[in-house]
Amino acid sequence: MTTTLTQTLFLGIAAIPFIYFFLALVSSLLFFLQAPAEATEANEESAFLPPISNLKPVRGLDPDAYENFASFCRQDYPNYEILFCVGDTSDPALPVLQRIVRDFPNTQIRILIGSGRQAANDKVAKLARLTEEASYEHLVISDSDVRVEPDYLRKVIAPLANPRVGATTCLYVPTEENSWVQRLQDVGMLSDFYPGILVAKQLEGIKFALGPTIATTRTRLQAFGGYASIENRPADDLLVGRLIAEQGYEVELLHYPISTVPDYQSLKELVYKRLRWLTVMRHMRPWGHIGMIFTLGLPWALLAIAVHPTREVAAAYLGGYMVFRAVLTALIGAWGLKQRGVWANLLLVPAWDAFATMVWLASFTRRTIRWRGQDYLIKDGELVPIAPAESAPKATAVSGLR
Q1: Rounded CA gap, 382 and 229, in Å?
Q2: Pick from 255, 262, 253: which is nearest to 337 by CA?
Q3: In the prediction, which pLDDT does 401 show?
Q4: Are 122 and 87 contacting, i.e. CB atoms less than 8 angstroms apart?
Q5: Which residue in 46, 176, 186, 347 has a CA-CA distance of 20 to 30 Å to 263?
Q6: To the nearest 10°, the Cα dihedral for 170, 402, 161, 243?
């Protein structure tokens, strides 16, 4: 079959995702090959053990909440406190937190009720109060669905011994996979989300942070106005990393994965989660969001075959796509993050890519997002609750510092 000029041009465009896949492979290799050097540096910095305030905003009861919270009370660290903040005394997480206080009497724990603020982003409003209430300069901020090992605080705080480092953050892996939806999401993290992060790191450095863990200092936060300055904006984790990087500090992505407990059970929940993230990215990084079209290898491979349906094109584009995606997913998941079951999940990669493509297209039609059962409009980079927000509860503390 003769190839026309138009077909040749289209086939050239359809090959662009392979350039991205190659960059992702190289970036992932370089990142994980640096792990031994980082471990050596961490050993040298192991004497850096400043007092730490671990800040945890909480809303609702996550799966396995008690074990998640308890893991932070078992830290092999000389001096730290844990501050929780819930919205009000009716929050179902409160009895679990009170049990944590009883079960770990030797750990410094405080539970704060209410942010005392009226803000669109409830989590960030809580973090604003938590930062103000923290006893110490060094802060570790973590989500309520995170579960950690006893060396967690030592690992995430050590790089801050270097005055050039303004914050650290971590990749994260699931504690378990109980459904095909969770397996699909995990494949998406390994094959899609993390490759994008590692390419960004290689090309321009880390200028963001990941919500499950951010370690920084009160001074670094205050320099950009603190959490109060972003309490009406989405993607607070990305913003904190960006605003610290803009001060001239490094944001370090550690070779130390932490665990998160999946909090979604259905495909509908996964769609909302992915659509929320993509819609926020479209508003925060519009050109980057459009550019994602050249990271979507599956639709380009299928279009290439449709434009020039030959065995050679099918082998080159669809076969090349499958090889690149499988190698990249295995490289990050099985080799880099030491996750089990990655090889068995490789057949889900095309399913994730088809799902991700449809949600990406849908994100261009959305001006609203749904988070924790609340719908928000994104206007001028800020969150606007569609339903009137309730008045902020009076800020109190229900358990004292031990």
Answers
A1: 11
A2: 255
A3: 41
A4: yes
A5: 347
A6: 60
Burial class (CB in 10 A: 0-12, 13-18, 19+), 7: middle
CA distances from 181 to 82, 192, 271, 352 (A): 33, 16, 10, 10
Asked whether the CA dihedral 376, 382, 388, 391 is positive or negative, the reply is positive
Angstrom distances, CA of residue 224 to CA of 107, 128, 228, 241, 263: 31, 13, 10, 11, 32
Closest to 190 in 3D by CA, of 333, 1, 356: 333
Q: Indicate whether 350 belongs to any domain.
A: yes
| C-alpha–C-alpha distance, residues 228 and 121, integer Å | 10
Query: Is 71 contained in some domain?
Result: yes
Question: 236 and 230 in contact (C-beta within 8 Å)?
Answer: yes
Domain assignment of residue 354, yes or no? yes
DSSP designation for 162: S
- Describe the strand order of the beta sheet including 396-399 as a list of residue ranges: 146-147, 250-260, 165-174, 213-217, 138-142, 52-57, 80-86, 108-113, 396-399
Buried b (16+ CB within 10 A) or exposed e, 335-357: ebbebeebeebbebbbbbbebbb
Which domain does 103 fall in, by range?
Answer: 5-381
Q: Which residues contact 178 (CB under 8 A, 6 or more apart)?
A: 262
Tens digit of each residue's pLDDT (9 = 90 or more) over 2-60: 678 888 999 999 999 999 999 999 999 999 999 877 666 666 657 899 999 999 999 99
Report whether pLDDT(392) > 60: no
pTM of the model: 0.92
Instruction: Identify the CA nearest to 296 among candidates 359, 347, 342, 204.
Output: 359
CATH number, domain of 28, equals 3.90.550.10
| Token code pair at residue 208 | 């963001």
Cβ–Cβ under 8 Å, residues 204 and 170: no
Query: Per-residue pLDDT tens for 360-375?
Result: 999 999 888 887 677 8
- Total domains, the chain: 1
